[in-house]
Amino acid sequence: xxxxxxxxxxxxxxxxxxxxxxxxxxxxxxxxxxxxxxxxxxxxxxxxxxxxxxxxxxxxxxxxxxxxxxxxxxxxxxxxxxxxxxxxxxxxxxxxxxxxxxxxxxxxxxxxxxxxxxxxxxxxxxxxxxxxxxxxxxxxxxxxxxxxxxxxxxxxxxxxxxxxxxxxxxxxxxxxxxxxxxxxxxxxxxxxxxxxxxxxxxxxxxxxxxxxxxxxxxxxxxxxxxxxxxxxxxxxxxxxxxxxxxxxxxxxxxxxxxxxxxxxxxxxxxxxxxxxxxxxxxxxxxxxxxxxxxxxxxxxxxxxxxxxxxxxxxx
Amino acid sequence: xxxxxxxxxxxxxxxxxxxxxxxxxxxxxxxxxxxxxxxxxxxxxxxxxxxxxxxxxxxxxxxxxxxxxxxxxxxxxxxxxxxxxxxxxxxxxxxxxxxxxxxxxxxxxxxxxxxxxxxxxxxxxxxxxxxxxxxxxxxxxxxxxxxxxxxxxxxxxxxxxxxxxxxxxxxxxxxxxxxxxxxxxxxxxxxxxxxxxxxxxxxxxxxxxxxxxxxxxxxxxxxxxxxxxxxxxxxxxxxxxxxxxxxxxxxxxxxxxxxxxxxxxxxxxxxxxxxxxxxxxxxx
Lengths: 315, 284
Ligand SMILES: Cc1cc2nc3c(=O)[nH]c(=O)nc-3n(C[C@H](O)[C@H](O)[C@H](O)COP(=O)(O)OP(=O)(O)OC[C@H]3O[C@@H](n4cnc5c(N)ncnc54)[C@H](O)[C@@H]3O)c2cc1C
Ligand SMILES: Cc1cc2nc3c(=O)[nH]c(=O)nc-3n(C[C@H](O)[C@H](O)[C@H](O)COP(=O)(O)O)c2cc1C
Ligand code: FES
Description:
The complex is a heterodimer. Chain A is an alpha/beta fold. Chain A is 29% helix and 19% strand. In chain A, strands 3-18-17-12-11-8-7-4 form an 8-stranded parallel β-sheet. In chain A, helix 4 (185-194) crosses helix 5, helix 5 runs parallel beside helix 6 (260-269) and helix 6 crosses helix 8. The longest helix of chain A has 16 residues, at 286-301. Chain A is globular. Chain A starts with 17 loop residues before the first strand and ends in a 14-residue tail after the last helix. Chain B has a domain at 2-104: Elongation Factor Tu (Ef-tu), domain 3 (Beta Barrel). In chain B, helix 5 (182-192) packs parallel to helix 6 (204-217). Classes of the chains: A alpha/beta, B alpha/beta. At the A-B interface, strand 5, strand 6 and helix 7 of A face loops of B. FE2/S2 (inorganic) cluster binds next to loops of chain B. Flavin mononucleotide (FMN) is lined by residues 32-35, 57-58, 81, 83, 85, 111, 139, 177, 204-205, 228-229, 232, 254-257, 276-279 of chain A.
């Protein structure tokens, strides 16, 4: 298709805005939780107002210590991490982090988690009161300490229960972030949709492990970590494709996105927006480059609205 | 703090396994402080995926090609080939394009003028001490104690001497200078200059031994630490060390990339610095 031109010959700027559960994003690109700190870490390198939204590091009620080091190691086209969800806790977040974020007009989405159902619920209620928070992203890839450490998101029943409880505590848009470490992602996706999720984001990291053959020790202190980066992209695209088939709520695609072409794969299989994680470490300007690349792709393909592209997979 | 696409001016082996790379780097003469580092993107394709951290050895200007042209600014890094990233770096040539993020982190406090300064460098740990010495020689007596396994690990000592720094070399195999550990030399120097301040960078066992010596004597100490890093800007929390007073209920971590890499010894929890023990569970 030829690029659309105005009368003066300049290409028409396509509409890049998308909407997720009533939340208007100026474009479909936002950072993945835990890879962008609280925004301020990357502000010297990237205009945060360019982003569709800002997503903050996973938050808990109390400050959380996190795992021993080494916490990260590079693997083939990816990295393993076991940070252990270290974070400042809700009080310090409100006091020290929110005022910085309030300077920007990009909506702030707070990623949060709990060790028990009650912790999830209490935190959701606190976040619901904060005017600076546009939406919540609920990370259910955490072990339930009250139930032998089984990860909430790996069991559809547990996932349904905790999401339903949180749903009662907030009227803000509720995005539920799924773990890919399950047999059938469609089952968990349907369970959280049924429990009242307004949107679903996926994937969180895949569990993985690497060994230092000289010392014969695991390369990260926690032994097992979460794999992210380009290596996981085909798995993430497959899972987003499957979830889009299974649910009606909007889906946000995450996993190994480093370039506009990568983001396009997710949009074409039906994701309404995307999150960029590990690529921020490689290039602090990555999200701006991706946003520019998406716009350029639309212009070159004669697409006037990026929404026309979403869910256009030909099979 | 900027990310720049830039080019390599030169890349040469200076001792077996050690390379010195000069990189075009505007603004670094003004911005870079002793002890700061850069995140180096080795190439735009994979591997390696993540950037690699390197201390800034020195900054400077290249003579312009003709009168009237502005002088080009550069930084130099010195690296030891240890793995994938540094393995690719040793193959790079003049004119090759790379990316630099920096200058990053908190560097050294220069201390009081006129007081005795003792710098302790173990192998590649010598790198961040050069700019420090450059600044310190202006108003203090500076001594460099340089340790390594063999003579191959002793690099750039003559450049420190040219600054006017007194240098003392020791190697574990005795192939250059005194035979033994750099910490033996440190004890002797502190006997002689009990009021000196110490600035150290090197492998963790060396840093740990230096810390014990200094804390016994009440000697002020700053250390530059290494950690595995993904982002270099305080976002990933991969590079943390435990700060003094850390406990599980009151976590107190410091990011090596942002609050470091240089720390005053008193800021850190030394009991657990050298012995990380694995526990805790859950993926992200
Ligand atoms: C603030 C800072 C400043 C540094 N300055 C210098 C310097 O001036 N010169 C220099 O040669 N090296 C320096 N290092 C270490 C350097 O970053 C690593 O040697 C390099 O990243 C190894 O990359 P690689 O791909 O070759 O090794 P890999 O293939 O990734 O790993 C090979 C080995 O190197 C170790 N390693 C990897 N990354 C690091 C790291 N970030 N720190 C310590 N060990 C690591 C691995 O555990 C492994 O044993 C510095 C590190 C930090 C944190
Ligand atoms: C260092 C690191 C920390 C992370 N922390 C969180 C977190 O706190 N909460 C969360 O929901 N996901 C967390 N994630 C997962 C990412 O948000 C993302 O789902 C995953 O990395 C896949 O995307 P990517 O391949 O683009 O990195 C983290 C990932 C990394 C690499
Ligand atoms: S390297 Fe990411 S926080 Fe320090």
